Amino acid sequence: MSDQQTPNGLLKQLNTLLDAYDMPNTTRTSLLSCVKLAYESDRENHYSAPMLWIGLYIAFASLVCILPMVADLLHGLHSRQLWFPCKYFRINAAFLTVISIAMKLPVDLSGSMPGVVDQAAKLGSMAFMCIMMANLLPCLATMNNNELLSNIAALCVLVITLVVNVCIQVRTGVLEIVSAILAIMYVICLLELLLIHLCSSLAILKSKQIIESKY
């Protein structure tokens, strides 16, 4: 970036122009402040341009999670297995990576999202995480012991990270009052679902040990 394109360069040029027309000091100060604010706003818009692609990236990751869940739903209805076994959407490294991408909005602490739509997106992502955890519960019994322990540990790290970051946003006032109340409700649901996953995993491991010792 050349000196003429920097804020200081532009302000110097404007100051020279104002000197040529002999503007009053108050008018000069106001005009320089307005030009500086307009320049900073333009630069901020320039740096926020990747947000569109980040949003599409998150939407694509969410779609990758939604399609297998719909496939599991149709498979369960077709085979009349109303507990909806996880044939396509499962806990593994690939899906946990995709889930972490889909949860970028509530996890992100650096992005400023003051709008109503932005906060609704954060809350929607948390609700989506609750739905995914409920759908993943039946697949716990289909894994061996090592897979079960490693996948549950990874899921715990993901959920705890999400919960901690949301609590920080609530504590620091990033979320408005209504959004904060809903976020706390989703945090409670996530912790309950995580506790169900942990208890179910322990029960599955113990049941497998009992069955293997007897048979």
Output the keywords.
mainly alpha; 77% helix; 215 residues; elongated; 0% strand
Task: Please explain how this structure is put together.
The chain is mainly α and 215 residues long. It has helices spanning 7-21, 25-47, 51-78, 93-102, 104-107, 116-136, 145-171, 177-214. The longest helix has 38 residues, at 177-214. 17% of the residues are buried. The model has no long low-confidence stretch (mean pLDDT 81).
Approximately what portion of the residues adopt beta-strand conformation?
Answer: under 5%
Average pLDDT metric: 81
Count of β-strands = 0
Coarse structural class:
mainly alpha
| Alpha-carbon Rg, integer | 26 Å
Quote the distance from N terminus to C terminus. 74 Å
Oligomer: single chain
Helices and strands, in order, run as HHHHHHHH
* Helical stretch tally: 8
Largest sheet: none
The unreliable regions are none
Shape: elongated
Which percent range fits the helix content? over 70%
Blueprint (SSEs and pairs):
Layout: H1 7-21, H2 25-47, H3 51-78, H4 93-102, H5 104-107, H6 116-136, H7 145-171, H8 177-214
Helix pairs in contact: 1-2, 3-4, 6-8, 7-8
